[in-house]
Amino acid sequence: MEALLATLPAGGGGTVAAAVAVAGLAAITGVRMGPKQRANAPPAVPGLPLIGNMHQLTDAPPHNTFAKWSEIHGPIYTINVGAKHVAVLNSAEVAKEAMVANFSSISTRKLTKAFSVLSRDKMMVATSDHGDFHKRGKRFAMMGMLGFAAQKQFRDTRKQMVDNMISTLRTLVINDPHATQDFRKNFRDELFRLSMIQGFGEEVSSVYVEEFGREISGEEICQIIVVDMLRCVTEVDWRDFFPYLSWVPNENFEKKVTTIESRRTAVMRSLIKQRKKRIEGGEARASYLDFLLAENTLTDDQLMMLLFEVVMAGTDTTLMTTEWAMFEIARHPEIQERLCREIQEVCGDDRVTEDHLPRLPYLNAVFHETLRLHPAASVLPPRFVHETTTLGGYEIPAGTELMINVYGCNIDKKVWEEPEEWRPERFLDDGFNIKDMYKTMSFGAGSRTCPGSSQATSISCASIARFVQEFTWRVREGDEDKADTVQFMGNKLQPLFVHLTPRRGREQ
After folding, report:
1. Strand-pair partners of 379
2. Which DSSP symbol is given to 54?
3. According to the model, what pLDDT value does residue 351 have?
4. Bind-site residues for heme
5. What whole-number distance in Å separates Cα of residue 193 and Cα of residue 209?
6. 3-class secondary-structure state, position 1
7. How far is 338 from 362, CA to CA, in rounded Å?
8. Where are the beta strands (DSSP E) in 385-437?
9. Domains of the chain, CATH where assigned
10. Which label site among 45, 62, 102, 301 has the fewest CB atoms less than 10 Å from its CB?
């Protein structure tokens, strides 16, 4: 939101001035900021004419502000963001009521202009409305990459990824024992390699992109289809908040988003073309692309977007959770040592593998506590209420947008004791249960439960265990309290820099 307010004066000179003037005229002539207040409406957070509550969302991350408002107004309340009327949910009970019991009334995604362009108007499972395409895409993902059988195929590849990461870190420590290490960059590189092998059947070191007129490296591929895309998702277009002014150009925004999207498309099409040539040459491999091509029911754009989605999600969301876990572990030495003792008791001198995970309850507690306090999406992408419905005892009229503050749900004091503390022990009270992964809302609920939850859990837990088994972790001095996130997303704002010390007996 801060970015939005910062861009308003510089979004196109006279064009923006005209937009603001028209917005003012709209307000004067009676354009409503949301449905009329009803007798059984949720509490409304007081705001200003025209901009509503936008000015109140600039001083802190929105998920923090939403959580504070819930202490005053309750678990469900409404705000106005420009011309948009939004109901914000801050309780897991109410959120699950929306996502499960009342799903049919709010199954439509409401995307920002940036997200709409980058997802090619909902041509991804995560951004699509709950219809035939969503069901088919989710089924393909489970059968071709994320289900039990597909996961079994890539098990050795996942193990090799973790081994590679340990080898990289060990080499860096040997070369300079006192240097700080950039965890994010090194782990992202390994996760991207894994995602490319799963998606395309091979580690792609380079590809020729006709639109660029040159061959680009694996690092450039990752930059274009993962890093640049994630940065672009948070780009703010002020027209998102004033839909009746959507006709007004915003040239700076449009140029940036369309450029990034076109570069992503060029690279993805080149990767698919390169793989198709090898398939035509008789080189068939286990990969998501091979599976989708064999189905032969998708358009070229649908094929590209489904592949892009698993590569991006497989790289970024797993990185996000693991980075937060290692950040917390590195600044809580007593928890780190308890986890190390558990690994030693279960594994002895053997390297941790996925087979050990069910016997490591404290590791699982660390993982789920990280998901609770640092959800991958602090605030879920908005949904559109297309049929008047009831949530938390209040009537939510059609035309309202719905935002679920996952962070707010996960620090609800009625559910969690001292919720702002990172305390893995809270997941040991009743013994570890696989259902714990759904306590925190981090994998969604109902029909939109994340299909990648099993893979994310396996990769992240196995990686965390190996990292702690091999090294003692310590956060770079001065970074202990750097826990800021990227706007509505759960990404750690600053990369994690750490000091590593090989554990005795594991120096080689």
Report:
1. 405
2. G
3. 95
4. 450
5. 19
6. coil
7. 8
8. 389-391, 394-396, 401-404
9. 2-502 (1.10.630.10)
10. 301
